[in-house]
Amino acid sequence: MPIRNRFAELHPEITAWRQDFHRHPELLYDTHRTAGIVAQKLRAFGCDDVIEGVGRTGVVGLIHGNRRDSGRTIGLRADMDALPIQEATGAAHASTVPGKMHACGHDGHTAMLLGAAQYLAETRNFDGTVAVVFQPAEEGGAGAEAMVQDGLFTRFGISEIYGLHNSPMLDFGQFAIRQGAFYAAVDSFRIDVRGKGGHAARPNGCIDTTLAGSAIVMALQSIVARNTDPQQPLVVSVTAFRTETDAYNVIPDSVVLRGTVRSFDSEVRAATLRRIEDLARLTAQAYGATATLSHEEVPYPVMSNHDRETDHCVAAATTVSGARKTDAPRTTGGEDFAYMLDACPGAYIQMGIGKRALLHHPEYDFNDEAIPLGCSYWVTLAESRLGG
After folding, report:
1. Three-class SS of residue 384?
2. Which sign, positive or negative, has the C-alpha torsion 282, 283, 289, 294?
3. 6-58 pLDDT, tens per residue?
4. Quick one: average pLDDT of 297-315?
5. C-alpha to C-alpha distance for 82 and 31, rounded to whole angstroms
6. Cβ atoms of residues 243 and 257 within 8 Å
7. Is 261 in the same domain as 341?
8. pLDDT of 262-290, one tens digit each?
9. Stretch 208-218: mean pLDDT
């Protein structure tokens, strides 16, 4: 596996950065500490320009090559935010913040792109400019959209954008990618069910919201089974069922359901959201209750890789890992990099870190042994796209 020798030398240092980010997780746009460290390091590396506050708390570093005849700029993007999960790894570098952890590997993404930035700033073996893009709020906050709206592509002249995500479902060193639709569109929903609370021993005097809410949960499962073309991928998941009391002898006045929809087709997406509202309202009505649908998080569109840029990623991954590449299936996971790919040609690739706890699990931890691999991929892609 042709890993750049420089990253073998830098490996302990980059690992220390990664583990520091892991100890101090930050959510959504509240990535002030992480962004500050990123900006400080980019300046120390000698980046030609470091711009903070892009898309609220994003950071962009510009590295000019030893030639700029092409006038081209490509972007490499990493996400910085963590998740509201209580860590259970027991690692020496475990989160020091209760209820927050890097359970998706964004700490690894940030560290690897920093390592690549240091190398590129040292060597500058390319014609044009590399923009290293550090994004907040991937986990539900649409930080990619915020950076696009703040002029990521127009301000910095980026003509291609690339993203990478670690995968504990792939063997170590294996890359996976596909052209076209790759990650699903993501919609969230909240259903407020209201009835009439009272003593659980006298349910006849109540309008039971737990019963109505339970019926709604079951009814929503019919959308995939009976309202959608079987050849169209669709997920409707209710992920939270909360009452206003934990008492065993109280029927609550209200219940809140939360969930997510994952889809690849715009018509299926729209029809599903309409059907959720109709089923919730009419099912609640059948039990004498009412139900109101709302959406709390920013929806993410389908993330689709561009054909030519996908080929560039395949070439770089093959150079770094040999022939260990797979054609990835579509995934119902969501990724706000979709906003960047809607605004600019580019592609997004998965990098295997070896089998371990899955993403978004309390026992997940990024595999630091993958750091030289990811750094080498970024550098290889940048130099190949800019005629190194």
Report:
1. helix
2. negative
3. 999 999 999 999 999 999 999 999 999 999 999 999 999 999 999 999 999 99
4. 96
5. 9
6. no
7. no
8. 999 999 999 999 999 999 999 999 999 99
9. 98
For 80-98, what is each residue's pLDDT tens digit? 999 999 999 999 999 999 9
CATH code: domain of residue 256: 3.30.70.360
Question: Residue 237: which domain range?
Answer: 185-294
Task: Match 């073998």 to its residue by tokens.
Answer: 8
Q: How far apart are CA 362 and CA 214, in angstroms?
A: 27
The answer to whether residues 43 and 141 belong to one domain is yes
Q: Can you give the pTM of this predicted structure?
A: 0.94
Length of the chain: 388
234 and 149 share one domain: no
Distances (CA, A) of 365 to 23, 170, 302, 336, 369: 11, 15, 27, 22, 12
Q: Is 128 left (phi over 0), alpha (psi -120 to 50) or beta?
A: left
- pLDDT for 388: 58
- Are 226 and 365 found together in one domain? no
**Are 178 and 193 in the same domain?**
no
Domain count for the chain: 2
- Alpha-carbon gap, residue 69 to 141, rounded angstroms: 38
- Answer yes or no: do 174 and 321 share one domain: yes
